[in-house]
Structures are given as structure tokens and as C-alpha cells.
Write a structure and sequence with these properties.
Elements: E1 6-10, H1 32-36, E2 42-45, H2 47-50, H3 55-63, E3 70-73, H4 77-82, H5 89-99, E4 109-112, H6 121-134, E5 140-143, H7 152-161, E6 164-169, E7 184-189, H8 202-217, E8 221-226, H9 233-247
Parallel strand pairs: 1-8, 2-3, 4-5, 5-6, 6-7, 7-8
Helix pairs in contact: 6-7, 8-9
């Protein structure tokens, strides 16, 4: 297994409640990223979903990390949740203008669709066509939160465009489905019981480690992010999953 094929990290790093759980007491918040990069080689930018960062902020992240460190930004909720993929050309231009300077350091861009948005074939075709026309040099992964998207028509569209279906575990809160629709696999772990606030068991992690190894054997690149940040579960689970994969 090539180490470059597997990327494991967490959904963000700037959690003050990780102090003394993950971050040593003497590490100040403005140095959290530097410490994080000593343990992980990638991070998901969950914050870009809520607020678009400044270009200077993005430049700062780049200067504070090694050239091999990767970022996976989450598409703005203004595009997905407020505009719901309609009349988004200007918003997309603004979003990608911010991340253009980070392009060489990016993993897939995460697109999370809102729970209230049902499957609309024409809507998603128009969206994917726009991404292909304007942003073909980026890779994308789509996380759905409405079960109507779990259908072969949608999976075929993802496969046609080389966009990954996000395998997202959130217990019973949101739909779970496993399918591979691109040359890479994207997994998100939100917590098996309580959303964002529950721990994955050793058996849970071993099960996913075996799946990951199977995907790697199929020459798939695999991206894994833990979003269960409460009590530092995310970093604990991410580090343990990496250990299990390395010994299996």
C-alpha cells in the first residue's frame, strides 16, 4: 500500500475543547494547525461551509503547512442550502476564487446537500455540467442527507462525471449507503450514536479498516474524515483507524 493513497484526518482543527486532549496545554490556538500537521497529513475545511475565508487566511494556511499537506474544502452552504444549486454561477466564482491559490494542495471539494432537498435529476445535471464546464480541474465528492438521492439514476450521473458519493456514517440520523462512483472514495464519520458526540468502537474501526484496504487494493485513493469532535473523539478515532490499517 502506498501511503499517498490513504488520507485520514478530521473535519477541522481549531477546536479549543481539544486542549489537553489532543493539543498540549502550552500550545496556543494560533499554533493548533502546526501541531495538527505533526499528526495528520490532511484536513477537511468544514468551516468554509459556514463562512468563506479570506484569501489571506488561505495563504496563511499554506505557509504554515508542508507542501505535502492537503486540504479538502467544503462548499459554501449559501450555494447548497440557501440557493439550493439554482442561479449559483456568481457564488461559485467567488468561492473558487478564494481557493484558486490552494489548488495544488487540494483534495476533493466536499459538497453537502441539505436534508430538505429531494432528488431532482435536471437540477443535479445542470449543476454537474456547470462544474465540468468551469471547474473541471477540481475533484468533487457529494454527501446527501435525503434518502431520495439513494438511487441508480443519481449514482450513474456521479459515475459519468467522476464525482464520488460520500459514504457518511451518522447512525440513523442521515441515509447511509456504500457505493464507489469515482477513482477515489470519500468517507465521513459523524458519530455512530449521538451526532458529532459519540465514539467509534474498536470493532467499528476494524470493519472500516478492512473496507479501506479493499478499496486500496482496487487502486482507489481513499479520503477519511472524522467529524465527531466532542471530547476529542475525532482525533482519537482517526489516529486509531490509521494504526489498524497499518497492521492489518
Amino acid at each position: 500500500m502506498k501511503s499517498t493513497e490513504l488520507h485520514i484526518g478530521t473535519s477541522g482543527w481549531s477546536y479549543k475543547h481539544w486542549s489537553e486532549i489532543f493539543y498540549p496545554r502550552d500550545i496556543k490556538p494560533d499554533k493548533y494547525l502546526e501541531f495538527y500537521t505533526t499528526k495528520f497529513t490532511c484536513v477537511e475545511l468544514n468551516s468554509s461551509f459556514y463562512n468563506l475565508p479570506r484569501k489571506t487566511t488561505v495563504s496563511g494556511w499554506l505557509s504554515r503547512t508542508l507542501d505535502t499537506f492537503k486540504f479538502c474544502p467544503k462548499l459554501s452552504r449559501f450555494i447548497t442550502h440557501q440557493l439550493q444549486l439554482v442561479n449559483i454561477e456568481g457564488a461559485l466564482e467567488k468561492y473558487f476564487d478564494v481557493f484558486e491559490g490552494m489548488k495544488k494542495r487540494l483534495g476533493p471539494v466536499l459538497i453537502q446537500l441539505p436534508p430538505g432537498l429531494s432528488y431532482d435529476r435536471s437540477l443535479i445535471i445542470n449543476f454537474f455540467d456547470l462544474l465540468k464546464e468551469k471547474y473541471s480541474h477540481y475533484r468533487f465528492a457529494v454527501e446527501v442527507r435525503n434518502k431520495s438521492w439513494i438511487n441508480d439514476s443519481f449514482f450513474d450521473l456521479l459515475t459519468h462525471h467522476g464525482i464520488a458519493f460520500v459514504i457518511a456514517d451518522s447512525g440513523d440520523r442521515f441515509p447511509y449507503y456504500e457505493t464507489v462512483t469515482a477513482g477515489f472514495v470519500y468517507l465521513r464519520f459523524h458519530g455512530p450514536v449521538q451526532l458529532y458526540a459519540s465514539d467509534y468502537s474498536e470493532n467499528d474501526l476494524k470493519l472500516y479498516a478492512e473496507k479501506i484496504l479493499n478499496w486500496l487494493d482496487e487502486d482507489k485513493e481513499v479520503w477519511v474524515f472524522f467529524n465527531n469532535d466532542y471530547h476529542g473523539y475525532a482525533v482519537k478515532n482517526a489516529e486509531r483507524l490509521r494504526e489498524i490499517v497499518n497492521v492489518l
